[in-house]
């Protein structure tokens, strides 16, 4: 006879999802999570242990976003034959 699965303890969240691996995140998703972390930390709503964990996660997200931006810049340089040109304000044309 099979046993019924025990019910989660009161107050626990049975739908807790582990954080996404930072290296697999798209830029926009990582940036949105980073902004949320910053907001929580600035608001002082986190206990010390959670603040430290949030700081670590935020640092990972920041490095990931910076790397994705650097990769995009290199790709643009390749598309522009090795030179990154400034865009003129207002008309969107390369200067």
TrEMBL record:
Top EC class, one word: hydrolase
Coiled coil spans = 55-82
Protein location = Cytoplasm
Q: What is this protein called?
A: Exodeoxyribonuclease 7 small subunit
Give the UniProt record's GO annotations in the biological process aspect: DNA catabolic process
Biological role: Bidirectionally degrades single-stranded DNA into large acid-insoluble oligonucleotides, which are then degraded further into small acid-soluble oligonucleotides.
Task: Describe its assembly.
Answer: Heterooligomer composed of large and small subunits.
Superkingdom of the source?
Bacteria
The text of the family note is: Belongs to the XseB family.
> Which GO-annotated molecular functions does the record name?
exodeoxyribonuclease VII activity
Spell out the SUPFAM superfamilies in the cross-references: XseB-like
Which Pfam family is an annotated match for this chain, by its short name? Exonuc_VII_S
Q: What is its EC number?
A: 3.1.11.6
Q: Which NCBIfam families match?
A: xseB (TIGR01280)
Q: HAMAP family given for it?
A: Exonuc_7_S (MF_00337)
Alphabetized InterPro entries for the sequence: Exonuc_VII_S, Exonuc_VII_ssu_sf
Sequence intervals crossing the membrane: none
Keywords for the protein's UniProt record, in alphabetical order: Coiled coil, Cytoplasm, Exonuclease, Hydrolase, Nuclease
Question: What do the Gene Ontology cellular component annotations say?
Answer: cytosol; exodeoxyribonuclease VII complex
PANTHER family listed in its UniProt record: EXODEOXYRIBONUCLEASE 7 SMALL SUBUNIT (PTHR34137)
Q: Which gene encodes it?
A: xseB
What reactions does this protein catalyze? Exonucleolytic cleavage in either 5'- to 3'- or 3'- to 5'-direction to yield nucleoside 5'-phosphates
